[in-house]
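Continuing the series of single-chain predictions for the mutant panel. This is the parent chain; the variants come on the following pages.
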Amino acid sequence: MINYQPRRMEFIFVRWYESTGEVPAGWEAKKLDHLRFLPMADDGAFGFIDPSDIMRSCHIIPAFARGMLHCDGKGLSSCARDYADWAEYYVGL
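Parent structure:
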């Protein structure tokens, strides 16, 4: 730090997904990739990234047939709003 003057720093708080790896996916399998959120207790579940690192043309589609993650509608964190999470998601590019 050169001095103690305030500086603007842009960042985005994110919640990460992981691949379920249960179903073969991709172009050869002719199926969409399956994702789910990392468990909230996992150390890598949340993070910060630079806005310039964001991919801006990806669709995350709820896998409605798999159901909601919390069937009772009560999640673990009101801040993360996980009460509305689906059990799995599809990635559509």
